[in-house]
Design a protein that fits this description.
Strand order of the largest sheet: 6-9-10-3-11-12
CATH class of one domain: Alpha Beta
Largest sheet: 6 strands, mixed
CATH topology of one domain: Rossmann fold
Number of strands: 12
Bound molecules: adenosine-5'-diphosphate, magnesium ion
Number of helices: 8
Radius of gyration: 19 Å
Helix content: 25-40%
Strand content: 25-35%
Distance between the termini: 55 Å
CATH superfamily of one domain: P-loop containing nucleotide triphosphate hydrolases
């Protein structure tokens, strides 16, 4: 399905997204405070930081749910002004939320096609949606029966299906907000490895992902780069190999402690 249409031209080295001095206020409070960074193709970014650091707000800016109060966003070389999540989605940015939006009482194939249902005349074309979901999930290596209710899936499988749904629309940037927070260690690894495989193999490095976590150790192993936020600011932007997870954790603790002293 959509995966067939991916432009496999190597885009590595070109910026996929540039955030230039972004700000987002809730009232007077700067939840995102002067944040700038760049993402290239084929990257898996671990975005970490304490609760309230501004990670989810930053993702919402990239996904068109909020408009930045100041600053600019560039996507695939063009300045973008997303007015809604729909705009971001059309451009190729998909977000998967923490408390994901799968409907438990609906079968998987209906969840996959939610709000983009295939129709035959005035009726839902269930047969086609079922067949295409099955083919699509299989192409991504997800072994679930599309007829099963989403509510019957394990937490990890739910995440995989939610991510697969985001991939239906050929996203170039996939945003994952705390995808592992409610999972067992085994399931969390399964989900992270899935993201890595999708970016590197299915998309052949022509897409990137940002994975939010409040725990550096959860994302370190699969990330190509780590961004750390603290109180709305981006305080660290390093390649994985340049700093170990323990060192990074110590750095984060140090920042928090210094703040408590001042
Ligand atoms: N809709 C909102 N209205 C007001 N304040 C908010 C809203 N969403 C988040 N905040 C505040 O903005 C800050 C950053 O929140 P958030 O982006 O959710 O952080 P994180 O995802 O890193 O935990 C927090 O202090 C939070 O309380
Ligand atoms: Mg959050």
């Amino acid at each position: 399905m959509t995966v067939d249409y991916i432009n496999n031209e190597k885009q590595k080295g070109k910026p996929l997204l540039v955030a230039d001095h972004l700000y987002k206020y809730y009232g007077d409070f700067p939840a995102v405070n002067d944040v700038s960074f760049r993402i290239d193709y084929g990257e898996i970014i671990g975005l970490v930081g304490d609760n309230g650091a501004g990670k989810s707000t930053l993702l919402k800016l990239l996904a068109g749910y909020h408009k930045p109060d100041k600053g600019s966003l560039y996507f695939k070389g063009e300045k973008v002004n997303f007015k809604s999540p729909y705009d971001a989605r059309i451009s190729g940015i998909e977000i998967v939320y923490q408390d994901l939006a799968l409907i438990s009482t609906m079968p998987i194939y209906r969840n996959i096609y939610l709000s983009f249902e295939k129709k035959k005349g005035i009726f839902l074309d269930k047969k086609r949606m079922k067949q295409e979901s099955e083919k699509f999930l299989k192409s991504l290596g997800i072994k679930v029966d599309p007829d099963k209710l989403a509510g019957e899936l394990s937490g990890g499988q739910r995440q995989l299906v939610a991510i697969a749904r985001a991939l239906m629309f050929n996203a170039s940037l996939i945003l994952l907000d705390e995808p592992t927070s409610a999972l067992s260690v085994y399931e969390a690894n399964e989900v992270l490895n899935f993201v890595k495989r999708v970016i590197n193999e299915t998309y052949k490095d022509n897409a990137s992902a940002i994975i939010v976590s409040h725990n550096i150790y959860h994302v370190y192993s699969i990330a190509t780069r780590i961004l750390v936020m603290d109180q709305g600011k981006l305080v660290l932007d390093v390649k994985r190999g340049d700093m170990g997870p323990t060192e990074m954790e110590e750095y984060i603790v140090k920042i928090t402690r210094e703040r408590a002293v001042h």
